[in-house]
Amino acid sequence: MPERVAPKETPARQLATFIARYDPPVQKLIRAARGAMRRTYPTAIELVYDGFNALAIGFCSTQRTSDCLVSVAAYPRGVSLYFYYGASLPDPSGRFEGAGHQGRFIRFEGAHTVREPAVKRLLKAAALHARTPLPTSGRGALIIKSIAPRRRSRSSRKA
Predict the structure, then answer these.
(1) Which secondary structure element, helix H or strand E, spans residue 60, and what is its range?
(2) Contacts with 68 (C-beta within 8 Å, 6 or more apart), sequence order
(3) Which of 28, 60, 85, 129 has the most other CB atoms within 10 Å of its CB?
(4) CB neighbours of residue 28 within 10 Å
(5) pTM, whole model, 2 decimals?
(6) Domain definitions of the chain by residue range
(7) Is 151:51 a contact under the CB 8 Å cutoff?
(8) Per-residue pLDDT tens for 6-25?
(9) pLDDT in tens, 53-67
């Protein structure tokens, strides 16, 4: 008898599994942030990295990580919007956090975060400053780029 092969999981199902490892309040934030970024960048390609410390969902103009505009970065205690080239973006409102050479982040506290005028300006600036522009039409794809063989706990509760 031929051996039965389980159907390969879709990227959407894999991402749902990654998100399910977090506590429910963080799961809700991840889904809200991802939805907000999908609406902001509907033609972006989502690159997913399930790493040792965090889950990152990059919204990119190509399949190259260097073409990411913004990533949803999920940690056991919260979610951030990480602007890959944030250090080069104008931030007169001082909304960015971080002092890295290249990136900056904003803590994502809920859907209201992306409705703030300062955050809207930063999201628009990220698209305008992209090395490779976002496609003008079509719909982006969801691509699982990397899955760490080992991960830290995604729960904020002590084991």
Answers:
(1) strand 55-60
(2) 47, 58, 59, 60, 84
(3) 60
(4) 14
(5) 0.88
(6) 11-147
(7) yes
(8) 557 899 999 999 999 999 99
(9) 899 999 999 999 999
